[in-house]
Records
---
Amino acid sequence: MTESKTVTKDSFLYEQVADQVGALVSSGALGPGDRVPSLRAMSRKYKVSIATVMQAYMQLENKGLIESRPQSGFFVREARGLPQPVHPSPAPRRPHRVQFGNTVETIFALANQQDIVPLGVANPAASLLPVRGLSSALRSVVSKHADEAVSYNFPPGVLSLRRQLALRLTGIAGEVDPEQILITNGATEGLMVALQTVARPGDVIAVATPSYFSVLQMIERLGMLALEIPSRADTGICLESLNMQLRKRKVSAVVLSANFSNPTGALMPEENKRELVRMMADFDVPLIEDDVFGDLSFESDRPRMCKAYDKTGSVITVSSYSKTLAPGFRVGWVMGGRYHRAIMQQKQLNSSATSSLTQLAVAAFLEEGYYDRHLITLRRAYRRQVGQLRSAIASSFPQGTRVSDPQGGFVTWVQVPGNIDTQSVYQLALKRGVSITPGFLFSTTGKYQQFMRLCAGHPWDERMSQGIVTLADVVREVGEQ
Ligand SMILES: Cc1ncc(COP(=O)(O)O)c(C=O)c1O
């Protein structure tokens, strides 16, 4: 009798301890790879025996939440071994028109809606951005350079900012001179003016598929056609397929992100970048590379841009500070290679200039040396958040789910099993307060119906954790319909 009482009490206690540790993981206090408090520390904290804590940890280990490492203790399990998504093949062999309806509009409209779990939009949370440092840079600009801040600063843009950029980009992009840089209204304007400069309506633009949907929309609005080149979720575009297409037909430009592409997070190996740039020069086709996530490598050194391998001026690099500093500032830039002058004229036609105030503020922030420090913290945060998102998917989603394993940025590409249509998942999840980006938006051909993009731009907390559980339920429900 006494014995069974003890057992009952003990099992109650170990479950309580297990629940406490589980709560630390779902609230984000403990992330993948973090050491779980030692047996002794937990035993002291909860006034239970070491054996009880051990029992709790073994239960958590059985559930796959934590793992023991010999002579090191217990750690929150990382979502290792989750298979990479496999893209449907064959890829379409002809260029397509783009048709998305109004889904993109809805996804952007949800970006700042507080009551929605933000897994859909590739936005950094304001809490991760250096709001105080940027506010103080803005105040200093207003007090010291008010005349300049209220005046037009026509293309190529504020010189102090271009100087700072040239310093930062030298090496990553080869030799960079401030004269080779044009400031734009975010990367969006950079991509648009680059496309407008190098291609005309009816022209074919090759894109690595899956591809950032705004690029596909631009191609549509400019009356051009998208030719989708297969790519892998880990190493990006398939160079053989691209080569075959370039031999076969006239292509006016290639658009891709070599560093942490959106939506897969793929990172092209340096050798592939070198070969791609060589291929572009051989076929005399411009490459438009979008590097908005390039600074967000999880390693201490960021990868180089394709621009670093460019000997003929065929590479047009587009980027911005939207994923790292302040999307609302709309500070982006273009290095246009041999198209630079024409791109600058196009930018002038599109929008005259970019806000002088935000350009000056970003320049001041960079001059003070704050950016590098901020970047260290930000990369660490995104790395952790991506790990937390992948682990939550691994423990909640149906068997057979595949997830990309990005080494930078904060977007993941998820493939659900069977014939589950993520457009239905998107609609039902939204009704339950969770936003995702359905896969069909990343192609012109609707071929990613079983995929979705999930973003980890927001710190992990109970709400995000619950959002994934809700989403996993929705995926199962849609699968049963
Ligand atoms: C790959 C990619 N390129 C460009 C952009 C647009 O950047 P910006 O806000 O600087 O215009 C985004 C934003 O989500 C993006 O993901």
---
Amino acid sequence: MKRELSRKKNIVNIVWFKKDLRSSDHAPLYEAALGEYPVLPIYVFEPDYWKQEDAAFRHWEFTKQSLEFLRADLSTLGQALVFRKGKILEVFEDLRKEFTINAIYCHQETGNAWTFERDKSVRYWGRFNGVKILEYQNNSIIRGLADRDKWAAQRDKFMSKPIIEKPNIRPLEIDLAQISVDINFRGNSVKNNKQIGGAENGWKYLESFFQGRGNNYRKDMSSPLLAEAACSRISPYLAYGNLSVREVLRFVRDNLYNDKKMVASSKSFKSRLAWKDHFGQKLEDDFSIEMACLHRSFEKLRSKTPDITLLNAWENGETGFPFVDACMRYLRKTGWINFRMRAMLMSFASYHLWLDWRKSGKILANFFTDYDPGIHWPQVQMQSGTTGINAIRIYNPIKQGIDQDPQGFFIRKWVPELCHLTNAELHKVGTGPTRLNLGSSYPEAIIDLDSAGKYAREKVWAVRRLDGFNNKAQDIVKKHGSRQNKSRDFVNDRSKASFKLRINRQKSFDF
Ligand SMILES: Cc1cc2nc3c(=O)[nH]c(=O)nc-3n(C[C@H](O)[C@H](O)[C@H](O)COP(=O)(O)OP(=O)(O)OC[C@H]3O[C@@H](n4cnc5c(N)ncnc54)[C@H](O)[C@@H]3O)c2cc1C
């Protein structure tokens, strides 16, 4: 009886943080704090999640830094972040022994298949145990979206609402626990130019971008040498929710820059922010995008068991194509690379090496600090030619090297085995029998570029010409396609009307 009474006294609202590690513009936190009960803000480290093939140590590093920042931040609002480890339902059950849970407030997460299932189980557990699970929209990704045609308007409406303030929260007595874990993670730490988690750091990147770094954003974003400084670099801060997209958009709006270049940069930057949610919406609408070809006719295209020699060479930056290897080695060390080079790495794996995207996509996910399933899997499929609605883009790594690194600075830095070659020689490596002194440690090209590209193009087009292919493709456009058609390096999704025309005329592009 005594125990029952004391339990009733401790009624709490739980705020469950997932990939929304911030305190401002956070609807669940704000709403939970409005109530009459103390707030229990919690992050649960779930070992089963971190065992998934797409999870990696560098993701945890960034998460941990974000949690430490969030803990300090929340303590200034009234109650510091509580940290727990284990299976989510067991953690909630334990809390139920200590407290009466009024409700669990959280964001809807557009994550991998594992988190989709986990969230379903939490909903079921809540219903079964009479605990309200209140899930809030995350950025402008809309759960149960009825009609893609109306998505952009709904996004505009969401983005135009005021930023949600940080609330004051009523504290409670609870052991916070140290933010530390002891499991074997996949992959290693970022070595160079590490980005440190926490909203404050995200704001610093954003400010420096708008104070000058971003002046040549449009021009420099494609070069791996220049993009590191010229791009905003806020991707991990968005992926882990240290910043909300709405906060970033508001920052851009409130800091009007008259400088012509910066106006142009802001425009391109804002479209990319829209792409983030556009892609996230695709995964939200169809979580099988992580697991199956969007256009199912491509399922039998490549063997699901990858050629391990080719896969390892690609993963380790030892393909014998200097620009590909330089990009991969840079990514492994820094946890980041620019969009064009991500696209080239993926295209090279999927077309020239003819590897199934599921395995190579996971390898890239492990290397990206900013891994965000909502952007990643739709992009991986797009660069592998399996969506059925995008132009086939086969990046030529030799051409990319010449275009983006004509003086070979980037290649020489990351593939020092080739330092002794002249620029002309450098850009010939991989193009055939070079008869150059490559140095014994640098491998010969693992494939013949021209014939591999030709083979891939023919195979993909053979599928695209199959009976019924276009009908299915049009259904995909209807469900997932962008209703805008402005940008070249975006999606090439088009409206249904222009789609028929395009699919007949379309050629593959070699970049
Ligand atoms: C195969 C492949 C996988 C990718 N995987 C991821 C991923 O896991 N996580 C991730 O954040 N981005 C991913 N991208 C998109 C893009 O490369 C990165 O968002 C960008 O390089 C991050 O650097 P930035 O923050 O300086 O970007 P900026 O150019 O400054 O752009 C600002 C923000 O807009 C969004 N954005 C930029 N480009 C794109 C794009 N093409 N599609 C969707 N959103 C975009 C990002 O949130 C980014 O932080 C992937 C691209 C490809 C080709």
